[in-house]
Amino acid sequence: MSAQHTPAPSRPLHPPLRDLPVSPTLAADDTIARRRREGLPVLPLGFGEAGIPLHPALVRELTSAADRGAYGPVAGSAPLRAAAAGYWSRRGLPTDPGLVVCGPGSKALLFGLLMSLTDGDVAIPAPSWVSYAAQASLTGAKPVFIATPPGEGGVPSPALLADAVVRARSQGRSIRAVIVTLPDNPTGTLASEATVRRLCAVAREHDLLIISDEIYRDLVHDPDRKVPSPAAYAPERTVVTTALSKHLAAGGWRLGVARLPDGPFGRALRASLVGVASEMWSSAPAPIQHAAAYAFAEPPELVAHVDRSRGLHAAVARAVAARFSDAGARVRPPEAAFYVYPDLGPHREVLQEAHGIRTGADLCEFLLERYGMCVLPGSAFGEPDDALRVRVAPTRLYGEDDEQRRAALAALDPVALPWVAESLDRLSEILADLTTGVTASGLHTAAIA
Amino acid sequence: MSAQHTPAPSRPLHPPLRDLPVSPTLAADDTIARRRREGLPVLPLGFGEAGIPLHPALVRELTSAADRGAYGPVAGSAPLRAAAAGYWSRRGLPTDPGLVVCGPGSKALLFGLLMSLTDGDVAIPAPSWVSYAAQASLTGAKPVFIATPPGEGGVPSPALLADAVVRARSQGRSIRAVIVTLPDNPTGTLASEATVRRLCAVAREHDLLIISDEIYRDLVHDPDRKVPSPAAYAPERTVVTTALSKHLAAGGWRLGVARLPDGPFGRALRASLVGVASEMWSSAPAPIQHAAAYAFAEPPELVAHVDRSRGLHAAVARAVAARFSDAGARVRPPEAAFYVYPDLGPHREVLQEAHGIRTGADLCEFLLERYGMCVLPGSAFGEPDDALRVRVAPTRLYGEDDEQRRAALAALDPVALPWVAESLDRLSEILADLTTGVTASGLHTAAIA
């Protein structure tokens, strides 16, 4: 009644809040869960989870440490740091356990590393994992997207990076760090040694910290192919991170490790990171650190398990890429991890005319609403809005339950398993329907598991 | 050889790093561990850990969920959020599970909450837990220390808070949030309902977010005494946090929960916090979430366990306070948690003349170097450098191993247990030696377990 007499507030009615949407990959997961509850058909290709059960030996190790309730060192337990050092040393990166820092996921460690830098912008590849840019912004740094060379996702083009550094300086800003992903999410490719070496030369020339996210390192489809880590070519300035989330499918355990550079800068960075960690998360969970120490020691049973999971990821990713290719999309053969990154640009005209799709976001929304198919647009990874590239993560197709997932892991030809084949056929149907320009398709009403 | 010809660098040789020391409480823990390894005597009173074993039921529950490797919702599992809502509802704070957000420790949640605010300074009590000010600084906010009323640690004096808000505004700044600790670390006291109500009135008048850290809520020594949460008096603007770390001694599990306010502001804050969480830590560890859901449901066996631990903390804290009082320190009777906060100000002259001690940091360094006694200076909690108050955390005296700790939990008179009595006597000896002004004491050479 008296509202018209209320004076206009002279200040906001509550403290100003950050408007930050939930991470797109996690939001996609929520959407799929909601549609399942509502009984709607789904083809869940959005979420970057490994999609296989935990190995029983990891479960056994966590169980054996379930009584550990005490806080431990901020940087992680000595056995875990030693095991992680061994893991890297076996990959050609000799590592001092004193330079290993553990955290509750490599996501938290990446955040802590960016928080350790007090000044400067951060160069990140375009496309790249959704959280790099969001994290940089949260820490007050400006994320500078830099295109990757064709077919070499995860590493900013060295020439474009050098240009960007010079340009930033001419504008009174400075790029202080560059993030690389080896091998890459979202493209499922692996940059060449030559490109990584050139990237390292640019970083050295311009005093950049290199943060190398190698969480998919053990999932290069060709196990003989070497991962060219910048830690080998610019050891004095490269931090490497990895975790249990991908090759060991323990994303829900939240356990990551970082390998800091040796030398004065690396030791100063370690001290800064440990200081930040002590105020942000104290330590990683003690029982899970124990299981992680076992995992990074790489006993034969886990090595065999990772080998099997690599084979499964490779087979299904290749099959998915083939389905997109058959439907007229541009797609590179996947080389690593469990992602395919097709480009529906060749169908741009029909998508726009038949469905009003102009952007990658339009495309993904249409796929979700019409078919229950969840993929993420390239724009979520830093691509232009009008790019019609999408990230496809087919791991949820491995099975509806652990029995199916174990069967997929054990199968010589997982693509031939009925539930996988059925999903692949459903994908082909959707793509055919999408790209024929027929707008009144009844396909979306078909039920699918 | 050619160093003199090296041109001066035109820019730093590496990206500028944050100079942030490791959290003082954790650093003290490292110091004690080092002295033990070196065979030096220690009296570890520095680290704020509960000092009792995990209850077997918690271990059982974690074990039963050890096979959970999948990522879950950012805000936490539905059973955990429902259990936490029940925990608060039983304490007079009816709670919608949709307004509960879980994280890897309440420390991470507090950080995330501060990160959700995009503008403004943060008022914190002086003294207060070491991490509030560090976290505020990391998120770009200025921490504004405000003295607490005598005997009411954890809550900034409402009148001084109002003054500070007005003063900040006159300087073109604005205080947007206030943190309170109920009951309090480091003082071991609990503010009155009247003070909390006045604090809430000031917060409402000036549109402040209230963050109420209630991690010690279940450890008020008198179990009939009510904890006056600001969530009861300013529900529209109060966030409450708690965790498993203190009353259930699961600090190493890293599991905290936050209760967001109901209403439009609370829902906006929840969305912001979940967005920040999704980029900082994804989720809390899934197996530990399962055990936490069991814990927050408060089955009788855990309630009895918390009752026993409360009695142990109260008995030992009272005995420690008495030893300080007997030695001429000013000390309030501890009321909650497991801390004593004595003031050695009455001995200022002798401490300065005999030992050159002028500041709280001097005092703590002397105690550590001379006697292996670790306590933290008031300055670590935001007090003036020259304050001779120290925080004493006697939980490590409960035992050297779980057998002794279980005996301490079960004892009717834990202070009479030989190992506890011996440490208390050692404390009295140290204090007598410290305050007599004899500088060449041989006491520090005595070995002690």
TrEMBL record, chains A, B:
InterPro entries for the chain: Aminotransferase_I/II_large (IPR004839), AspAT/PAT-like (IPR050596), PyrdxlP-dep_Trfase (IPR015424), PyrdxlP-dep_Trfase_major (IPR015421), PyrdxlP-dep_Trfase_small (IPR015422)
Q: Where is the Aminotransferase class I/classII large domain?
A: 62-393
Recorded GO terms, molecular function? transaminase activity
Necessary cofactors: pyridoxal 5'-phosphate
Q: Where is this region: Disordered?
A: 1-31
Q: Which Pfam families match?
A: Aminotran_1_2 (PF00155)
What keyword terms does UniProt attach to this protein?
Aminotransferase, Pyridoxal phosphate, Transferase
Keyword Transferase assigned to the entry: answer is yes
Family, according to the entry, reads as follows: Belongs to the class-I pyridoxal-phosphate-dependent aminotransferase family.
The name on file for this protein is: Aminotransferase class I/II-fold pyridoxal phosphate-dependent enzyme
Source organism phylogeny: Bacteria, Bacillati, Actinomycetota, Actinomycetes, Streptosporangiales
